[in-house]
Amino acid sequence: MDADAVVHALPITVDYGGQDLAITPAVVETERGLVLFDVGPAESGAVDAIETHLRALEYELTDIWLVILTHHDGDHAGALETLLDRTDAMVAAHREETPYVTGERDPIKGSGDDRYPPVSVDIELVGGVCVPTLAGPFEVVETPGHSTGHISIHFPDGELLVAGDALVADGPGDGADRLAGPKPEFTPKMERALESVATLADLDVTHTLCYHGGYVPAGADRIREIAESDRH
Known about the structure:
Number of helices: 7
Domain Metallo-beta-lactamase: 22-212
Number of strands: 16
Radius of gyration: 16 Å
Number of domains: 1
CATH superfamily: Ribonuclease Z/Hydroxyacylglutathione hydrolase-like
Organism: Natrialba chahannaoensis JCM 10990
Oligomer: single chain
Strand order of the largest sheet: 1-4-5-6-7-8
Structural class: alpha/beta
Mean pLDDT: 93
Helix content: 10-25%
Protein name: Beta-lactamase
C-alpha cells in the first residue's frame, strides 16, 4: 500500500500567543476511520481548519476515532477539548505525557494560569505499540528530550516518519537540508533529544513529516547527519 495515498498532511496556520503559527497535523486512514496525529492550540481555529481539510478528502471530522499526541505541548494538544466536543474520538498519549494532558501536572513549558483545558487520556502508549492502518501498521517510537514522553510515528511499509517535534523542517532550500534537529530553546533535555534523533536514524525512513515545517523528502541518511553534527 502506498503510504502517501492514505497518510495526509494537514498544513494550517493558527493564532498562537498572538502570532501566526504554521503547523502540520496529519491523519492516516484505517478500516475504522481516521487516526489524527496532534491537533493544534486551544481557541485557534485549528479544529475548523482540520475539518476543512478533511472535507476536501471526502471525510468528516466525526470520522476521527483516535487522536495520538506526540507530546503535551499546547500547540499540539491545546485544541483537544474542542475536538472532543465534536467527535467521539479516543485520546492516546505516552504514559509519561498523560499527567500533563489530564491536568494532574502543569505543562512543562507553560503554567497553571495559561494551560489548555485538560482532557482524559483513554490509551497510554509505550514504544513498540503498533496500530494497523491502510498504509500498513505504524509503530510508536519513543523519542524523549523535547518532552519527557515525546513519541514519533514510523510507517515501515511506506518508509515514512511522522516526527512530531523530534525534528523540524526549517532549514534552507527545499530539499533534504530543510530537515533539522529539535530547537534547543524549546527542548528542556537537548542531549536526550539528540539521542532520540540517533534512534530515528536507525529506522527505515526515506521521507519525513514534521509538525513544524511539514513534509521533507529526506530520511535516515539526513537524520544521521543531524545526529552526528549536532553532537559536535
